[in-house]
Amino acid sequence: MTRIDFYLLSSDQPQTRLAYACRLAHKAWQKGHRVYLHCASEQMCQELDALLWSFRRDAFVPHVILGEGPEEAVSCGNGEQPGTHADLLINLSDQTPSFFSRFQRLAEIVVEHDGVRLPARERFRFYRERGYPLHSHQIRTAG
């Protein structure tokens, strides 16, 4: 059964989610995990792609936007199919991805902004009602 972690960031800036997603993807990739970052839109995919190149001076995360090249250990997408990924799903959409249960782990990144927080509460209830193991992590952020 998929383990679901909610990362509750102290920021009220939606952009902070993307920066934290990069950190989480980098850490998971360093530990040998394959990561799929599920975005809300093509525009978010483009923003995340750019941020993955620049979020840290000393970090390199091999990644690709699905459909724009061969799959990498870290892939971004916003469609209904996450390629061959089934390890870690980082959900940056405000919807529950239909394919989430094929992943070993799901990370939901939440900031203190109603446009992000309220849909996240609905997803939390959705997962809880179906018996998924839920874990919450309070994360203090600068932004």
UniProtKB/TrEMBL annotation:
PANTHER family (alphabetical):
DNA POLYMERASE III SUBUNIT CHI
- Which Pfam families does the UniProt entry name for this protein? DNA_pol3_chi
Can you provide one Gene Ontology molecular function annotated for this UniProt record?
DNA-directed DNA polymerase activity
Gene3D superfamilies per the record? DNA polymerase III subunit chi
- Biological process, per Gene Ontology: DNA replication; positive regulation of DNA-templated DNA replication initiation
Q: What is this protein called?
A: DNA polymerase III subunit chi
Organism of origin: Halopseudomonas pachastrellae
